[in-house]
Fold:
Amino acid sequence: MAKIVAKFGGSSLSDAGQFRKVRSIIEKDERRCYVIPSAPGRRFDQDDKVTDLLYRVYRASKSGEDFHPVFDQIRERFEAIASELSLKIDISKHLDGLEKEIARGVSEDYIASRGEYLNGLLLADYLGFAFLDPKDLVFFAEDGSFDSELTHTVMSSTLKHVERAVIPGFYGSVTGGEIKTFSRGGSDITGAIVARAASAELYENWTDVNGFLMTDPRIVPDACPIRNITYSELRELSYMGAGVLHEDSVFPVHRAGIPTNIRNTNEPENRGTMIMHGVVEEENPYVITGIAGRTGFSVLSVEKAMMNAEVGFGRRVLQAIEENGLSFEHMPTGIDTMCVVVSTAELERVKAKVVKRIMELTSPDSLTIHDDMGIIATVGRGMVHNPGTAARLFTALSSERVNVRMIDQGSSELSILVGVDEADFQKAIRAIYNEFVKE
Structure:
Protein backbone atom coordinates (compact mmCIF):
# COMPACT_ATOMS: atom_id res chain seq x y z
CA MET A 1 0.00 0.00 0.00
CA ALA A 2 1.21 3.50 -0.81
CA LYS A 3 2.09 5.54 2.28
CA ILE A 4 1.47 9.12 3.38
CA VAL A 5 3.46 10.71 6.20
CA ALA A 6 1.50 13.40 8.03
CA LYS A 7 3.14 15.98 10.27
CA PHE A 8 0.93 18.11 12.53
CA GLY A 9 2.14 21.41 13.96
CA GLY A 10 1.57 22.72 17.47
CA SER A 11 -1.60 24.64 16.59
CA SER A 12 -3.04 21.41 15.15
CA LEU A 13 -2.57 19.63 18.49
CA SER A 14 -3.09 22.42 20.99
CA ASP A 15 -6.06 20.86 22.81
CA ALA A 16 -8.52 17.97 22.78
CA GLY A 17 -10.68 19.59 20.11
CA GLN A 18 -7.71 19.79 17.76
CA PHE A 19 -6.81 16.16 18.52
CA ARG A 20 -10.29 15.19 17.30
CA LYS A 21 -9.73 17.07 14.04
CA VAL A 22 -6.41 15.29 13.55
CA ARG A 23 -7.94 11.84 14.07
CA SER A 24 -10.70 12.68 11.60
CA ILE A 25 -8.08 13.63 9.01
CA ILE A 26 -6.05 10.46 9.62
CA GLU A 27 -9.10 8.21 9.37
CA LYS A 28 -10.22 9.70 6.04
CA ASP A 29 -7.26 8.14 4.23
CA GLU A 30 -5.83 4.78 5.27
CA ARG A 31 -2.56 5.65 3.54
CA ARG A 32 -1.80 8.09 6.39
CA CYS A 33 0.18 5.58 8.39
CA TYR A 34 2.99 7.59 10.04
CA VAL A 35 2.16 10.68 12.06
CA ILE A 36 4.67 13.25 13.38
CA PRO A 37 3.34 15.52 16.15
CA SER A 38 4.71 18.78 17.50
CA ALA A 39 4.26 19.90 21.10
CA PRO A 40 0.95 21.63 21.90
CA GLY A 41 0.89 25.17 20.54
CA ARG A 42 -1.18 28.22 21.41
CA ARG A 43 -4.92 27.77 21.94
CA PHE A 44 -5.56 31.51 21.66
CA ASP A 45 -3.54 34.66 20.97
CA GLN A 46 -2.18 35.28 24.47
CA ASP A 47 -1.58 31.61 25.22
CA ASP A 48 1.85 29.99 25.66
CA LYS A 49 3.32 27.24 23.53
CA VAL A 50 4.26 24.24 25.65
CA THR A 51 7.81 24.30 24.27
CA ASP A 52 8.20 27.91 25.43
CA LEU A 53 6.99 26.87 28.89
CA LEU A 54 9.50 24.02 28.95
CA TYR A 55 12.35 26.42 28.16
CA ARG A 56 11.14 28.63 31.01
CA VAL A 57 11.17 25.63 33.30
CA TYR A 58 14.74 24.87 32.33
CA ARG A 59 15.92 28.45 32.93
CA ALA A 60 14.19 28.60 36.32
CA SER A 61 15.63 25.25 37.37
CA LYS A 62 19.13 26.16 36.24
CA SER A 63 19.09 29.46 38.14
CA GLY A 64 17.83 27.80 41.32
CA GLU A 65 14.35 29.33 41.12
CA ASP A 66 11.12 27.44 41.78
CA PHE A 67 10.15 25.92 38.42
CA HIS A 68 7.01 24.18 39.71
CA PRO A 69 4.47 26.98 38.99
CA VAL A 70 5.39 26.94 35.30
CA PHE A 71 5.57 23.16 35.25
CA ASP A 72 2.05 23.04 36.67
CA GLN A 73 0.84 24.92 33.58
CA ILE A 74 2.41 22.23 31.40
CA ARG A 75 0.87 19.50 33.52
CA GLU A 76 -2.57 21.08 33.17
CA ARG A 77 -2.29 21.15 29.36
CA PHE A 78 -1.45 17.47 28.97
CA GLU A 79 -3.77 16.18 31.68
CA ALA A 80 -6.68 18.17 30.20
CA ILE A 81 -6.18 16.58 26.79
CA ALA A 82 -5.93 13.07 28.27
CA SER A 83 -9.02 13.62 30.42
CA GLU A 84 -11.23 15.13 27.70
CA LEU A 85 -10.36 12.33 25.27
CA SER A 86 -10.71 9.60 27.94
CA LEU A 87 -7.30 8.18 27.08
CA LYS A 88 -5.99 5.02 28.69
CA ILE A 89 -2.43 6.27 29.14
CA ASP A 90 -1.47 7.52 32.62
CA ILE A 91 0.06 10.79 31.46
CA SER A 92 0.31 12.04 35.07
CA LYS A 93 2.83 9.30 35.78
CA HIS A 94 5.01 10.48 32.90
CA LEU A 95 4.72 14.08 34.09
CA ASP A 96 5.69 13.06 37.63
CA GLY A 97 8.79 11.38 36.25
CA LEU A 98 9.71 14.42 34.17
CA GLU A 99 9.29 16.73 37.17
CA LYS A 100 11.76 14.61 39.15
CA GLU A 101 14.24 14.53 36.27
CA ILE A 102 14.14 18.32 35.98
CA ALA A 103 14.84 18.63 39.71
CA ARG A 104 17.89 16.40 39.21
CA GLY A 105 19.22 18.74 36.52
CA VAL A 106 18.69 17.18 33.08
CA SER A 107 19.79 19.01 29.94
CA GLU A 108 17.97 21.84 28.18
CA ASP A 109 17.52 19.74 25.04
CA TYR A 110 15.99 16.91 27.06
CA ILE A 111 13.47 19.20 28.76
CA ALA A 112 12.60 21.01 25.50
CA SER A 113 11.97 17.70 23.72
CA ARG A 114 9.40 16.48 26.24
CA GLY A 115 6.59 18.51 24.67
CA GLU A 116 6.77 16.41 21.51
CA TYR A 117 7.42 13.22 23.50
CA LEU A 118 4.38 13.60 25.75
CA ASN A 119 2.12 14.76 22.92
CA GLY A 120 3.27 11.77 20.91
CA LEU A 121 2.27 9.41 23.72
CA LEU A 122 -1.18 10.99 23.87
CA LEU A 123 -1.70 10.90 20.11
CA ALA A 124 -0.52 7.28 19.77
CA ASP A 125 -3.00 6.25 22.44
CA TYR A 126 -5.80 8.23 20.79
CA LEU A 127 -5.15 6.85 17.29
CA GLY A 128 -4.33 3.31 18.41
CA PHE A 129 -0.94 3.55 16.67
CA ALA A 130 2.45 2.30 17.85
CA PHE A 131 4.70 4.88 19.54
CA LEU A 132 8.27 5.13 18.25
CA ASP A 133 10.72 7.24 20.25
CA PRO A 134 12.97 9.34 17.96
CA LYS A 135 15.88 8.85 20.36
CA ASP A 136 16.17 5.37 18.84
CA LEU A 137 15.70 6.52 15.24
CA VAL A 138 17.12 10.02 14.71
CA PHE A 139 20.84 10.45 15.31
CA PHE A 140 23.32 13.28 15.74
CA ALA A 141 27.11 13.11 15.66
CA GLU A 142 29.18 14.12 18.67
CA ASP A 143 29.68 17.60 17.20
CA GLY A 144 25.90 18.09 17.11
CA SER A 145 25.47 17.72 13.35
CA PHE A 146 22.61 15.59 12.06
CA ASP A 147 23.67 12.13 10.86
CA SER A 148 21.30 11.74 7.93
CA GLU A 149 22.55 8.42 6.60
CA LEU A 150 22.62 6.55 9.92
CA THR A 151 19.16 7.93 10.65
CA HIS A 152 17.87 6.85 7.24
CA THR A 153 19.29 3.35 7.60
CA VAL A 154 17.89 2.74 11.08
CA MET A 155 14.53 4.41 10.50
CA SER A 156 13.80 2.76 7.15
CA SER A 157 14.66 -0.64 8.65
CA THR A 158 12.38 0.00 11.64
CA LEU A 159 9.42 1.23 9.62
CA LYS A 160 9.42 -1.96 7.51
CA HIS A 161 8.16 -3.78 10.61
CA VAL A 162 5.72 -1.14 11.89
CA GLU A 163 2.60 -0.48 9.82
CA ARG A 164 1.25 2.53 11.71
CA ALA A 165 3.11 4.72 14.16
CA VAL A 166 3.36 8.07 15.87
CA ILE A 167 6.91 9.45 15.82
CA PRO A 168 7.39 12.73 17.73
CA GLY A 169 9.20 15.52 15.94
CA PHE A 170 11.98 17.92 16.94
CA TYR A 171 14.50 15.60 18.62
CA GLY A 172 16.74 12.57 18.41
CA SER A 173 19.86 11.48 20.25
CA VAL A 174 23.62 11.76 20.09
CA THR A 175 25.45 8.47 19.79
CA GLY A 176 25.37 7.12 23.32
CA GLY A 177 21.81 8.20 24.10
CA GLU A 178 21.89 11.89 25.09
CA ILE A 179 18.82 13.74 23.78
CA LYS A 180 19.54 16.36 21.08
CA THR A 181 17.03 18.69 19.44
CA PHE A 182 16.89 20.32 16.05
CA SER A 183 16.43 24.09 15.88
CA ARG A 184 12.93 25.43 16.54
CA GLY A 185 10.55 24.16 13.89
CA GLY A 186 12.44 20.87 13.88
CA SER A 187 9.29 18.77 13.71
CA ASP A 188 9.14 19.72 10.01
CA ILE A 189 12.58 18.17 9.63
CA THR A 190 11.54 14.97 11.39
CA GLY A 191 8.50 14.66 9.16
CA ALA A 192 10.61 14.94 6.02
CA ILE A 193 13.11 12.40 7.38
CA VAL A 194 10.31 9.90 8.07
CA ALA A 195 8.79 10.46 4.63
CA ARG A 196 12.10 9.65 2.98
CA ALA A 197 12.68 6.58 5.16
CA ALA A 198 9.16 5.28 4.49
CA SER A 199 9.45 5.88 0.72
CA ALA A 200 6.18 7.75 1.04
CA GLU A 201 4.25 8.85 -2.01
CA LEU A 202 3.36 12.10 -0.24
CA TYR A 203 4.45 14.13 2.78
CA GLU A 204 1.66 16.21 4.32
CA ASN A 205 2.55 19.14 6.55
CA TRP A 206 -0.58 20.15 8.47
CA THR A 207 -0.62 23.59 10.05
CA ASP A 208 -3.06 26.48 10.61
CA VAL A 209 -2.87 28.16 7.18
CA ASN A 210 -4.10 27.17 3.71
CA GLY A 211 -0.63 26.76 2.25
CA PHE A 212 1.71 29.49 1.07
CA LEU A 213 0.75 32.93 -0.18
CA MET A 214 2.31 34.66 -3.16
CA THR A 215 3.80 37.34 -0.93
CA ASP A 216 3.80 38.65 2.63
CA PRO A 217 0.17 39.37 3.65
CA ARG A 218 1.41 42.15 5.92
CA ILE A 219 2.43 43.98 2.76
CA VAL A 220 -0.30 42.73 0.41
CA PRO A 221 -3.28 41.83 2.65
CA ASP A 222 -5.23 40.03 -0.10
CA ALA A 223 -2.26 38.03 -1.45
CA CYS A 224 -3.35 35.02 -3.49
CA PRO A 225 -2.46 31.47 -2.41
CA ILE A 226 0.14 29.41 -4.25
CA ARG A 227 -1.45 26.18 -5.50
CA ASN A 228 1.67 24.56 -6.92
CA ILE A 229 5.36 25.32 -6.48
CA THR A 230 8.57 23.46 -7.26
CA TYR A 231 11.27 22.80 -4.69
CA SER A 232 13.59 25.08 -6.69
CA GLU A 233 11.13 27.96 -6.48
CA LEU A 234 10.58 27.28 -2.80
CA ARG A 235 14.31 27.48 -2.12
CA GLU A 236 14.54 30.83 -3.90
CA LEU A 237 11.63 32.27 -1.90
CA SER A 238 12.71 30.88 1.47
CA TYR A 239 16.26 32.14 0.97
CA MET A 240 14.88 35.63 0.45
CA GLY A 241 12.95 35.56 3.69
CA ALA A 242 9.57 34.05 2.83
CA GLY A 243 8.05 32.45 5.92
CA VAL A 244 7.87 28.98 4.42
CA LEU A 245 9.64 25.78 5.39
CA HIS A 246 13.07 25.43 6.97
CA GLU A 247 15.54 24.37 4.28
CA ASP A 248 16.55 21.29 6.29
CA SER A 249 12.93 20.17 6.25
CA VAL A 250 12.82 20.29 2.46
CA PHE A 251 16.05 18.49 1.58
CA PRO A 252 15.13 14.88 2.58
CA VAL A 253 11.87 14.81 0.61
CA HIS A 254 13.36 16.74 -2.30
CA ARG A 255 16.22 14.27 -2.44
CA ALA A 256 13.77 11.36 -2.50
CA GLY A 257 11.49 12.98 -5.09
CA ILE A 258 8.53 13.07 -2.70
CA PRO A 259 5.98 15.88 -3.10
CA THR A 260 4.98 17.91 -0.02
CA ASN A 261 1.45 19.16 0.59
CA ILE A 262 0.95 22.09 3.00
CA ARG A 263 -2.56 21.77 4.47
CA ASN A 264 -4.76 23.45 7.09
CA THR A 265 -5.98 21.23 9.95
CA ASN A 266 -8.91 23.59 10.50
CA GLU A 267 -9.94 23.54 6.82
CA PRO A 268 -8.99 20.04 5.65
CA GLU A 269 -11.10 20.36 2.49
CA ASN A 270 -8.74 23.07 1.19
CA ARG A 271 -6.08 21.51 -1.06
CA GLY A 272 -3.38 23.88 0.21
CA THR A 273 -0.03 24.20 -1.56
CA MET A 274 1.64 21.31 -3.36
CA ILE A 275 5.43 21.38 -3.54
CA MET A 276 6.61 19.28 -6.48
CA HIS A 277 9.98 17.77 -7.28
CA GLY A 278 9.99 18.60 -10.96
CA VAL A 279 7.43 19.43 -13.63
CA VAL A 280 4.10 20.77 -12.37
CA GLU A 281 1.25 19.53 -14.55
CA GLU A 282 -1.28 22.17 -13.53
CA GLU A 283 -0.57 25.43 -15.33
CA ASN A 284 0.21 28.45 -13.17
CA PRO A 285 -2.38 31.17 -13.86
CA TYR A 286 0.34 33.81 -13.34
CA VAL A 287 3.77 34.30 -14.88
CA ILE A 288 5.28 34.49 -11.40
CA THR A 289 4.94 32.10 -8.47
CA GLY A 290 5.84 34.37 -5.58
CA ILE A 291 7.61 37.48 -4.32
CA ALA A 292 9.83 37.63 -1.23
CA GLY A 293 12.46 39.96 0.12
CA ARG A 294 14.62 41.09 2.99
CA THR A 295 16.02 44.38 4.19
CA GLY A 296 19.23 45.24 6.00
CA PHE A 297 21.77 44.98 3.20
CA SER A 298 24.80 47.04 2.16
CA VAL A 299 26.43 47.15 -1.27
CA LEU A 300 30.17 47.52 -1.61
CA SER A 301 30.78 48.92 -5.08
CA VAL A 302 34.36 48.56 -6.33
CA GLU A 303 35.16 50.42 -9.54
CA LYS A 304 38.35 50.17 -11.58
CA ALA A 305 39.06 50.78 -15.26
CA MET A 306 39.90 47.58 -17.17
CA MET A 307 38.94 45.48 -14.15
CA ASN A 308 37.78 42.70 -16.46
CA ALA A 309 41.29 42.30 -17.85
CA GLU A 310 42.95 42.09 -14.43
CA VAL A 311 43.36 38.42 -13.56
CA GLY A 312 42.30 37.60 -9.97
CA PHE A 313 40.59 40.93 -9.28
CA GLY A 314 37.32 39.39 -8.12
CA ARG A 315 39.11 36.81 -6.00
CA ARG A 316 41.04 39.54 -4.16
CA VAL A 317 37.85 41.50 -3.40
CA LEU A 318 36.26 38.36 -1.96
CA GLN A 319 39.48 37.61 -0.07
CA ALA A 320 39.06 40.88 1.81
CA ILE A 321 35.46 39.93 2.59
CA GLU A 322 36.44 36.46 3.77
CA GLU A 323 39.36 37.62 5.91
CA ASN A 324 36.95 39.71 7.95
CA GLY A 325 34.53 36.87 8.56
CA LEU A 326 31.81 38.03 6.18
CA SER A 327 29.77 36.04 3.71
CA PHE A 328 28.24 37.70 0.66
CA GLU A 329 24.65 37.42 -0.50
CA HIS A 330 24.96 38.48 -4.16
CA MET A 331 27.65 39.72 -6.50
CA PRO A 332 26.40 41.58 -9.58
CA THR A 333 29.20 42.84 -11.80
CA GLY A 334 29.87 45.07 -14.82
CA ILE A 335 32.90 45.54 -17.05
CA ASP A 336 34.56 48.04 -14.72
CA THR A 337 32.44 47.59 -11.57
CA MET A 338 32.05 44.79 -9.07
CA CYS A 339 29.38 44.93 -6.38
CA VAL A 340 29.27 42.73 -3.30
CA VAL A 341 26.05 42.61 -1.26
CA VAL A 342 26.50 41.85 2.45
CA SER A 343 24.51 42.12 5.65
CA THR A 344 24.66 45.66 7.01
CA ALA A 345 24.74 44.41 10.61
CA GLU A 346 27.66 42.10 9.89
CA LEU A 347 29.55 44.71 7.88
CA GLU A 348 29.18 47.44 10.49
CA ARG A 349 31.55 45.82 12.98
CA VAL A 350 34.39 45.43 10.45
CA LYS A 351 33.63 48.13 7.87
CA ALA A 352 36.91 50.05 8.24
CA LYS A 353 38.98 46.86 8.04
CA VAL A 354 37.14 45.65 4.92
CA VAL A 355 37.59 48.97 3.14
CA LYS A 356 41.27 49.13 4.02
CA ARG A 357 41.89 45.55 2.89
CA ILE A 358 40.08 45.97 -0.45
CA MET A 359 42.09 49.12 -1.13
CA GLU A 360 45.34 47.26 -0.33
CA LEU A 361 44.51 44.22 -2.48
CA THR A 362 42.92 45.87 -5.54
CA SER A 363 43.89 49.57 -5.68
CA PRO A 364 40.48 50.53 -7.11
CA ASP A 365 39.62 53.85 -8.72
CA SER A 366 36.78 54.18 -6.22
CA LEU A 367 35.11 52.23 -3.44
CA THR A 368 31.68 53.21 -2.18
CA ILE A 369 29.28 51.62 0.30
CA HIS A 370 25.53 52.03 0.01
CA ASP A 371 23.55 51.06 3.14
CA ASP A 372 19.82 50.68 3.82
CA MET A 373 19.03 48.45 0.87
CA GLY A 374 16.34 45.80 0.55
CA ILE A 375 16.50 42.93 -1.92
CA ILE A 376 13.36 41.55 -3.57
CA ALA A 377 13.19 38.24 -5.41
CA THR A 378 10.48 37.72 -7.99
CA VAL A 379 10.34 33.97 -8.54
CA GLY A 380 8.54 31.78 -11.03
CA ARG A 381 9.05 28.91 -13.43
CA GLY A 382 6.70 30.79 -15.76
CA MET A 383 9.36 33.47 -16.25
CA VAL A 384 11.73 31.04 -17.94
CA HIS A 385 11.97 31.92 -21.64
CA ASN A 386 8.98 34.24 -21.26
CA PRO A 387 9.80 37.41 -23.23
CA GLY A 388 8.98 40.71 -21.59
CA THR A 389 8.88 39.59 -17.96
CA ALA A 390 11.80 41.77 -16.88
CA ALA A 391 10.44 44.72 -18.84
CA ARG A 392 7.07 44.43 -17.09
CA LEU A 393 8.76 44.25 -13.69
CA PHE A 394 10.94 47.32 -14.20
CA THR A 395 8.11 49.29 -15.78
CA ALA A 396 5.96 48.55 -12.73
CA LEU A 397 8.70 49.80 -10.41
CA SER A 398 9.32 52.87 -12.54
CA SER A 399 5.63 53.78 -12.53
CA GLU A 400 5.75 53.84 -8.72
CA ARG A 401 8.96 55.92 -8.81
CA VAL A 402 11.01 53.16 -7.18
CA ASN A 403 14.71 53.57 -7.81
CA VAL A 404 16.39 50.23 -8.63
CA ARG A 405 19.89 50.15 -7.15
CA MET A 406 20.84 46.61 -8.12
CA ILE A 407 19.73 43.99 -10.67
CA ASP A 408 20.71 40.34 -10.61
CA GLN A 409 19.30 37.38 -12.55
CA GLY A 410 20.60 33.84 -12.39
CA SER A 411 21.27 31.73 -15.47
CA SER A 412 18.24 29.56 -14.66
CA GLU A 413 15.95 32.56 -15.25
CA LEU A 414 13.91 31.31 -12.29
CA SER A 415 14.18 34.59 -10.39
CA ILE A 416 14.91 38.27 -10.86
CA LEU A 417 16.45 40.10 -7.91
CA VAL A 418 16.34 43.83 -7.49
CA GLY A 419 17.87 46.01 -4.82
CA VAL A 420 15.87 49.05 -3.69
CA ASP A 421 16.04 51.61 -0.91
CA GLU A 422 14.53 50.25 2.29
CA ALA A 423 12.08 53.16 2.25
CA ASP A 424 10.71 51.82 -1.06
CA PHE A 425 10.77 48.12 -0.08
CA GLN A 426 7.07 47.54 0.59
CA LYS A 427 5.97 49.84 -2.22
CA ALA A 428 8.16 47.86 -4.64
CA ILE A 429 6.67 44.51 -3.58
CA ARG A 430 3.14 45.86 -4.03
CA ALA A 431 4.04 47.26 -7.46
CA ILE A 432 5.40 43.91 -8.68
CA TYR A 433 2.44 42.01 -7.24
CA ASN A 434 -0.08 44.35 -8.83
CA GLU A 435 1.63 44.06 -12.21
CA PHE A 436 1.64 40.27 -12.37
CA VAL A 437 -1.29 39.21 -10.22
CA LYS A 438 -3.93 41.91 -9.99
CA GLU A 439 -6.53 41.88 -12.73
The chain is about 40% helix and 20% strand. The CA atoms of residues 229 and 275 lie 5 Å apart. The longest helix spans residues 108-127.
